[in-house]
Structure formats: C-alpha cells, structure tokens
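Q: Is it fine to ask for two folds in a single conversation?
A: Yes, each is treated on its own. Send the first.
Q: Here.
A: Result:
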Amino acid sequence: MLDQEITLITTALLATGQTYSEFREMTVRLVEENKTTGPNQSESYLNYTKMNLQRMNRWDKTIKVAPELEKLVASISSPQVWLVISEAWCGDGAQTIPFMAKLAALNPKIELRIVLRDENPELMDAYLTEGARSIPILIALSGDLSKELFVWGPRPQFLQNRLKAYKLDPQNITSKEFSDGTHLWYARDKNKAIAEELTPLIAETI
C-alpha cells in the first residue's frame, strides 16, 4: 500500500461513511424521492437504483454463508475495517455488498463502512481497475488503518473476464442484454464466487 493511499483512508473519512443499514435506508429515501446518488440523475440511473433496492431486499432475506467461511470470519481476532466504495445505482454493488455486510456482521471486530465514489474521487483514483473507476471496491484494513490487508472488486473474476470479452467483441448483444445476463448470473451463482474469492484473502489476515 502506498503512503499516499494510507493518508487517504482516515478516521475522518470513515466518519463520513455509512453502515450497511444506513446505506440501505438512504437508498430507500432516494427511491421515494425519485433520486439516486452522484451527479447523474438520468431516468436510467433512477431505474437502476430502484432495481438495486429490490436486489438488496432479496439478498438480505436469502443470503447463506457456508459454515467454513462463517468459522473463518468468526476467528478474526484483531480489529479490521472494511471500507467499500460504491453508489446506490451500482448494479454490482447491490449484488455483492449485502454479502460483504453479512460476513462483517459475523464478527464484532469487523467495522464495515460504505463511502460514495463520486464524493471521494481521490480515493477512487487510488483503487482503479485497469484505469477505470469501477465499483464496488472493498478495501480491508487493520483497525488502526495503518495496513491494507486486501482489496477485492469490482466484481467476481468470471464477470470481470466476461466484461472484458464483451468490450472487445459485443457479438451483436445489446448493453441491456449483457446487463440482464450479468444479473441472471448473480442470481444463479448465489454468492458462491465472491465467497470463494474472499475466503483466501480473509484467511491471510488471520
């Protein structure tokens, strides 16, 4: 972790972050007001936000954590901060942040906070994905913020590879068809991919 990145993640920044419950409550209010986060208030982004609220509602009711992963997270003995960069309109965020929150809730030593990408451009630019401001990004840190433990995101590797292939050759698939395929994959995967990818990262912190 670069010194510059360490200085970007401070207790002051965490104080501006939201718990998962607060993020959910904010999204509910925004949908009621026909708004979303960030400068883009287009109809499409408003619709994304409405769909994301439904996705988070569904995952909150159906997420299951494998016993092995639950035991691993529960064994974390030193405080950790899980900082997530996202936005209310982010489809990948709605599909994966509920699982991150479920894991964090398994151990009181894990503090999860969510900050908005467009309100923190300098932080976002320190965690680009192949040059892009892709979200969500999960940054796990030691409790005193002095050490970066791991970074995950913005999506499971299968979907990241699928997106790269699509950008190279859309093969007559519309962006909506591609997006629909992504969310269908999430529904069928049931958080297995993110669990498999986070498990070794979490294990290294213990």
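Q: Second one now.
A: Result:
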Amino acid sequence: MKRIAVLASGRGSNFQAIQDALAAGKINGEIVALLTDNREAYAIERADTAGIPAIVLNYKDYTSKAEYERDLLTAMQDVGADLYVCAGYMRIIGPEIAREFSGKMINIHPALLPAFSGLHGQRQALEYGVKIAGCTVHFVDEGLDSGPIILQKAVEVLDDDDEDSLSERILEQEHIAYPEAVALFCADRLHVSGRRVKILPEANNQ
C-alpha cells in the first residue's frame, strides 16, 4: 500500500475526489498527510474530517520563497510518502523539490498540455478559440507544467461557454482523471521513458 501526501492551497475538491476513491477501494494506498501553504484552505477541514494530519506552512508568514521551500522540502522528507499529489497547490514547485521527488510527484492542470500552461488555462483556451479543452495529469519536473503526461481528459468547448462554465465541466473530468492516475501509480503501472509515460497492463493475480 502506497503512502500518499497531498499538497493543496484551496478548497481541495481533487483532494476529496482522491479520498473518495480510496474509501471505495479503487486505490491501493492511503493519504498520510496534507501539506498546505494557506492556513485558511478548506482542504484543512476536509483533512480533519477524514482524520488526516494537516501540515500548515502558511506562505504569508515567510520572508522569502526560498525560506518557505526549505521548510516545505523538510516537511515532505519527514512525511516520507511514496507519492506527492499537487491538488490545487498554487505555488510553482522549486527546482530542488522537483529534483528531490522526481518521478514521485504529480500535478493536474486544467488544459490539454502542452497547450495553455500556467495560470488560467481555461481562460487561455477560450481566448484562443479552441473547440476541445480538458485537463492533464502529469509528473512534476523543473519546468512549468512541462513534466511527462500520464492522462488527459477532453471536454468540448461550447459556443456559449464562459470561463466559469468551462472550468466547471473540466473540473468534473479532473475528479475522474486524478484518482485514476493515482490508482495507476499505486499499482506500479506507470513506466516513464523520456517524455512518454506508458500505462502497463494490469497485473495477473492468478
């Protein structure tokens, strides 16, 4: 059973989706900690309800990003998880943390990468006029939303969509894709070769 730690900054709806999948027996793992940069994050309440320890490193209490990331790296090392899941974590992961947890840290982005990386992927998609948007689960590397892609889910862009309506439909797919990707990782079914992630067949239990 894999040890999972979740990093979140806000409401934690993807955190909840992963919790629900764990409770349903769809993932061979357990969430052992929540790490958050925001003492007011609703994800903390979700963690408390589930009996999951919450580690709060309030970003506003730090004088620099470097100081914050030193404490975050130490906290992540202390947790000792097999997988670190960025679920609405709104800080760019620094290179030292990315290197330390290479192949063990994943993120979800509300766009079909490599298109529309960075902030407001849904808004970028609408402004560009694409007909298909979606979400991407990927490994974290030292770049911005640039790590090897694990899963993608597509969403049709409707003529009357605004940022809120498109974001809502993409979020529905995030709640499907993220638990699926975590389950694949916890089943040792992801093989990374360069930029390509191969999903291995399910093990034969016979």
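Q: Anything structural to flag on that second result?
A: Two points. The chain is about 35% helix and 25% strand. The helical segments are 13-23, 42-50, 65-79, 95-100, 121-128, 163-186.
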